[in-house]
Prior knowledge:
The protein has helices at about 45-50, 75-85, 95-105, 185-200, 245-255, 310-325; strands at about 20-25, 25-30, 30-35, 55, 60, 70, 120-130, 140-150, 160-165, 205-210, 215-220, 220-230, 230-235, 260, 275-280, 285-295, 300, 335. Helix 2 (about 75-85) packs across helix 3. The chain folds into two domains: about 5-150, D-amino Acid Aminotransferase, Chain A, domain 1 (2-Layer Sandwich); about 160-325, D-amino Acid Aminotransferase, subunit A, domain 2 (D-amino Acid Aminotransferase, Chain A, domain 2, Alpha-Beta Barrel), CATH 3.20.10. The protein is α+β, with helices and mostly antiparallel strands. The protein starts with 17 loop residues before the first strand and ends with a strand. Bound molecules: pyridoxal-5'-phosphate and 2-OXO-4-methylpentanoic acid.
Amino acid sequence: MNTDWKNLGFGISKxxxxxxxxxxxxxxxxxxxxxxxxISIHMGATCLHYGQESFEGLKAYRGKDxxxxxxxxxxxxxxxARSAKGIMxxxxxxxxxxxxxxxxxxxxxxxxxxxxxGASLYIRPLxxxxxxxxxxxxxxxxLFMIFVMPVGPYFKEGFKPVDVMITRDHDRAAPQGTGHxxxxxxxxxxxxxxxxxxxxxxxxxxxxxxxxxxxxxxAGPANFFAIKDNTYxxxxxxxxxxxxxxxxxxxxAQNMGLKVEKRPIPVDELESFExxxxxxxxxxxxxxxxxxxxxxxxxxxYGDGKNAGPVTTKLYExxxxxxxxxxxxxxxxxxxxx
Length: 338
Ligand code: PLP
Ligand code: COI
């Protein structure tokens, strides 16, 4: 394979196989292997009309020893089950989810990037309503599938500070809506504001709480965190996705001797932070250099403009150290595939 692993972006590419499982007559069938990138579904499928779909995102990492590692994929299984419940999809049992992840990674082992390239294998589980309905109601048939592709950083800067833009004229999720679930509708709702942010030269949009526009919600496809007074601070909000990366960073931070606060973060507090960042599977940790609130004619800058702050750097090194197997996993987060 002639892949330029070090310069991979975050994009679709073809790998050898994907796995699929159909839910029919009230039960899940056998896991199937396919080498086609296409699926065939009824044009009345509920995923197409009413957004009855959920997806996940996780990665496989190759260590120095050449072995392939999965990070906390039981948490992705649980989150997909919550998403399924939330929009009336058939739940994928945790064992089926985990077996499917293991299978698809093993089948595409040659696409797991070499150690030291900064790249990883992105794993995209997808659960869709395939049964046709024209009224707004859940399908009776579902398809669960997983495909994979090698990727580099989501934000092209990698572990370099980016600028983000506060969005005030669009909400990604309603206060009692589906923001806490990983379902397609949230991402459709985010597209205009993310596109506007890109047009204006920002890496992504920073969302505020939809009810009061007073608190920070999240940063495009990633959670938000801030560092101040030896404390890791991250929003507590019903309308953001409970990020597995963020959850892990909270534990790592605590073990590094930081205090951890999960609480509403008023926009007015931004100026008092020493460091800020975005975190997620795709984004890993992306340090934030500047937050611009154009409507309020305000901007806040962090650090020296070129490098991540010291605490963000320590968190990043600890996290990727565990994921790539360079740092001992004292948490039980890693599964080595053999
Ligand atoms: N927030 C949103 C909206 C996301 O799409 C993601 C990505 O999954 C995250 C946060 C980060 O979550 P995780 O760390 O589980 O990947
Ligand atoms: C991830 O971080 O895995 C995500 O799913 C983000 C995605 C919307 C690109």
